[in-house]
From TrEMBL:
Keyword Secreted: no
Enzyme Commission designation: 2.8.3.19
Name of the protein in question: Acetyl-CoA:oxalate CoA-transferase
Keywords: Transferase
Record InterPro entries: CoA-transferase_III_domain, CoA-Trfase_fam_III, CoA-Trfase_III_dom3_sf, CoA-Trfase_III_dom_1_sf
Top-level taxonomy: Bacteria, Bacillati, Bacillota, Clostridia, Thermosediminibacterales
One matching Pfam family: CoA_transf_3
An example Gene Ontology molecular-function term: CoA-transferase activity
Transferase is among the record's keywords: yes
Domain of life: Bacteria
Top EC class, one word: transferase
Length: 397
């Protein structure tokens, strides 16, 4: 099947995670993504785990792309980038603000080369921001802390905890892809390109939904609650005889079924627990009662009981269980690729399931510079002699 973005060409100047996450989405959806890497490659190629000197980190985020290795600090390298901009629809970069301008490739300069170009920048605090933040370095951990996310993550009363994945980078990548797709639709209507300015901080603040409105409406400063929900009770993980089980009881109908399932129908109409606002108000009294009950059976036993009552629940799966889970595999969210120099390796699949133009993992992550000659010769019409000269001058690898 052809992807919905077939015919869209992306010049990808990004590195490590936020930008590559964005361009992987576009590539999964059928765009041609040409990843420009410096002579030493994307920094992510140096991050483990490794097999045969190949980075699993890089492999996990760069499938479906082409790699062109070019030194953009040379005039000849800049010419290659200019030539690519002329034939591209989108450019993505995630350098510090000001870096691309120093190279001579700000948005203002790029749109002179290609007026319809969609230029997406991803950085920690945004390009249109306060002057003191314009060149501030930012990693995922920085924005997890700055955004307030870490202040509400972790056990109640405990120290702040980093979310277990690089969510600041990944959210920014997803928001960048949404922004690019929206800009492509706008260009289709008007012929205008534009600058898409994505901030990692914006993305995590956007995801604070309930925490921000709780503070603005009540003055309460949210803190970490472990697995518990701040305004719905019971909506958390409970320790069982052998592990844990999550019980998100999101309304009063589910509360009645839950009480039947655990053999405590007397709690259904209890004056302190009858409605969610009451349960939430009296959670310090309710939760210990439920904790004691949940300890009486194993997780599997509770799962079988909750299934009978059609209650929402989940064990807390470890990654090995997720990789081998039947529904995860049925949805093709773990796929096997044949990675050069590595062999068979399993990576995450694509979440874009569409009846006509689904996302797809078509090719493995590229070796460094694997497609340099192909792109220069077939797309940019460089001659064999020109390519040979560029390689001799160390402009390309």
């Amino acid at each position: 099947m052809k992807g919905p973005l077939e015919g869209i060409r992306v010049t990808d100047l990004s590195h490590v995670l936020a930008g590559p996450a964005c361009t992987m989405i576009l590539a999964d959806l059928g765009a041609e993504v040409i990843k420009l890497e410096p002579p030493d490659g994307d920094d992510a190629r140096q991050f483990g785990p490794f097999k045969n000197d190949q980075s699993g980190y890089f492999i996990s985020i760069n499938r479906n792309k082409k790699s062109v290795c070019v030194n953009l600090k040379t005039e000849e390298g800049k010419r290659i980038l200019r030539d690519l901009i002329k034939i591209s629809d989108v450019v993505v970069e995630n350098f510090r603000p000001g870096t691309m301008k120093k190279l001579g490739f700000s948005y203002e300069e790029m749109k002179k080369i290609n007026p319809g170009i969609i230029y997406c920048s991803i950085c920690g605090f945004g390009h249109d921001t306060l002057p003191e933040y314009s060149s501030k370095p930012a990693y995922d951990m920085v924005v997890q802390g700055y955004s307030g996310l870490m202040s509400i993550t972790g056990p109640e009363g405990g120290p702040p905890v980093r979310v277990g994945t690089s969510i600041g980078d990944l959210v920014a990548g997803h928001h960048a892809a949404i922004g690019i797709l929206s800009a492509l639709i706008h260009r289709e209507k008007t012929g205008e390109g534009q600058h898409v300015d994505i901030s990692m901080l914006d993305g995590l603040v956007y995801f604070l939904e309930n925490a921000i409105v709780r503070y603005t409406m009540t003055g309460e400063i949210p803190g970490p609650l472990g697995t518990a929900h701040p305004t719905i009770t019971p909506f958390q993980a409970f320790k069982t005889k052998d592990h844990y089980i999550i019980t998100p009881i999101g309304n009063d109908k589910l509360w009645a079924l839950f009480c039947e399932a655990i053999g405590r129908v007397d709690l259904i109409e209890h004056p302190k627990f009858k409605t969610n606002p009451l349960r939430n108000e009296n959670k310090k009294e309710l939760i210990p009662i439920l904790e004691e009950i949940m300890l009486t059976k194993t997780t599997q036993e509770w799962m079988e009981i909750f299934d009978k009552y059609n209650l929402p629940y989940s064990p807390i799966n470890t990654v090995d269980k997720v990789v081998n889970d039947p529904v995860v595999n049925y949805r093709k969210m773990v796929v096997e690729i044949d990675q050069p120099l590595v062999g068979k390796v399993k990576i995450t699949g694509t979440p874009f399931h569409m009846s006509k133009t689904p996302g797809e993992v078509r090719t493995p992550a590229p070796l460094l510079g694997e497609h340099t000659d192909e792109v220069l010769k077939n797309l940019l019409n460089y001659t064999e002699e020109e390519i040979k000269t560029l390689r001799e001058k160390s402009v390309i690898n």
